[in-house]
From TrEMBL:
Protein name: Cupin 2 barrel domain-containing protein
Residue ranges occupied by any Cupin type-2 domain in the UniProt entry: 29-86
Gene3D superfamilies: Jelly Rolls
Signal peptide stretch: none
Organism this protein belongs to: Halosimplex carlsbadense 2-9-1
Entry superkingdom: Archaea
Short name of one Pfam family: Cupin_2
InterPro entries (alphabetical): Cupin_2, RmlC-like_jellyroll, RmlC_Cupin_sf
Amino acid sequence: MSEVVHLPDREGDGRGVLFEGAPKTVRLALDAGDRVPPHRHPDTEIVCYVVDGEVEMTLGDETVDLAAGDAARFSGDQDISPKAREDSVALLVLAER
């Protein structure tokens, strides 16, 4: 059976799991200036797609600027800390290695 989610209907809290099971798929909404504290997702590959806004993504010692339409793939073994430069929504897919 297929599952379909309409992202605009998922407004509300900043983080919400879209589908149960693997890969974990999360909608992340941040207000301008909000930052998620550094954290890790060991043994995981992550794809982040910015749906709306601009996000400054700190990945270990590197910082990547992402705007609406940009996608980034990175390892969850490092410290990860996204910060919204403006009100932003991103879709993250976390897949175990």
